[in-house]
Amino acid sequence: MFTKISDVMIRPLKKIFCLVFSFFFVCLPLHGCGGTDKIFFAEPVIFTSLDEIPGITAEDIAAVDALAVRYGSFVYGMPLSAELYTDEHGNLNGFTVLMCEWLSVLFGIKFEPALFEWLDLLDGLETGAVSFTGELTKTPARELIYNMTSTIATRSVKIYRLADSVPLWEISASRPLRCGFIKNSATLNIVSGEMAPDSYEVVELDDINQVYGALASGKIDAFYYSAVMEIHFAEYDNIVISDFYPLTFMSVSLSTQDAALSPVIEIVEKVLNNGGLHYLADMYNEARGEYRLFKLHSRFTDEEKEFIQNSVYIPVGVDPANYPGCFYDFREGEWGGIFLDVLDEVSLLTGLEFRRVNDEFTEWAVIYSMLENGQVALVPELTQTADRQDRFIWPDTPQMTEYYVLISHLDFPDLEYNEILYARVGLAQNTIFPAVFKKWFPD
């Protein structure tokens, strides 16, 4: 027996789904196409003491002991980013925190994460107020100034723009693009190497707090930096972030400007050369997952948070015959589809539980009726039409865009648009297709 669901009860789902859908498709990880039963990588090597590291010498350990006496602790400075931020409880969180915890255990010396503005970070490295950072990309010029390891993390380069601004391709047709970069960052050399000469003008900014004003005033058309800096634009709802093409990645290193701290750099490099990079990559992924949850939950209202906390489960009606959106695979004996994967992701990000209440033999017309009667709270897919507009609650973000096709037997001749008027076309009842077809071909 089904219980009717109140609109008031499920209305918070609208914004939750809008946020999760947009968030989900932006943050999709890259997956391989093979099964999960094969092991393609060796297990990460976890070093928790110096004597476990291959190639470590008595001189290395003695140097660390001397540093512990001289310094007592180290400041690990970073700018505000997805790698170091203040969470909802007022605590520092992110990859940098995990990195500092691991380094503290490995060296037996406290590594303390701390937030700095970009220029203050560079000054702190020079004066010694900052012992280490994981923000710098290794370049020949920087290696003359800093002691640096090889890669500890890799970031993708993004383009930050105003949502309602003129497309970059349209601007570039009439004048060079005004491209914004943080002064003394490595992003400029990386991005400019992929752009045609004379197609852009460089506009350098002192720090990331100047970016939004520069975009709003037209001083720059776009800002280029790594993906981890998106946290600076969380308060704005008119900033769009897209990949820079060709896909470009920036590697960062553990760095120090204090020559006395070079033993730490040398020892971490030995860790990286002996399987430690895999461990750091796993650590980075763990921290990125925590940031995704923080970013999403920080956008929920109190009403939505209460809904998530008090929800027992959400009944869902699933069409068994709408591949690839959702379907029942009779050969494999299991449900599948894109939209069910999306619901799984929503569950992972919010803790909401979705339960399918129909079986594999339920027709779509029955499921649609269950939605109208309130026996299910939602269906994973429904096309928004004028007659349905006021009867259901709709998210503002579409899950997927599909294109209509006419399907015929191989022996049937190809048709031009005007010939469709003379063909017998079958349309599935209780679906969007009859309405669309009759709108296109009203006679």
Number of strands: 16
Mean pLDDT value: 87
Poorly predicted segments: 24-41
Structural class: alpha/beta
N-to-C series of helices and strands: HHHEEEHEHEHEHEHEHEEEHHEEEEHEHH
**Tally of helical segments:** 14
Sheet with the most strands? 9 strands, mixed
Kindly state the percentage of residues in helix. Answer: 25-40%
Query: What best-fitting shape do the alpha-carbon axes yield?
Result: elongated
Strand content: 15-25%
Head-to-tail CA distance between termini:
44 Å
Oligomer: single chain
Rg from Cα: 27 Å
Structure description:
With 443 residues, the chain is α/β, with parallel strands linked by helices. 35% of the residues lie in helices and 19% in strands. The chain has 14 helices and 16 strands. It has helices at residues 7-10, 12-26, 58-71, 95-107, 118-127, 140-143, 168-172, 187-192, 211-217, 262-297, 302-310, 338-350, 364-372, 433-440; strands spanning 73-78, 85-86, 92-93, 110-115, 132-136, 147-162, 177-182, 200-205, 222-226, 239-243, 249-256, 314-316, 321-322, 326-329, 334-336, 354-356. A hairpin with a 4-residue loop joins strand 14 and strand 15. The longest helix has 36 residues, at 262-297. The two termini are 44 Å apart. The relative contact order is 0.14.
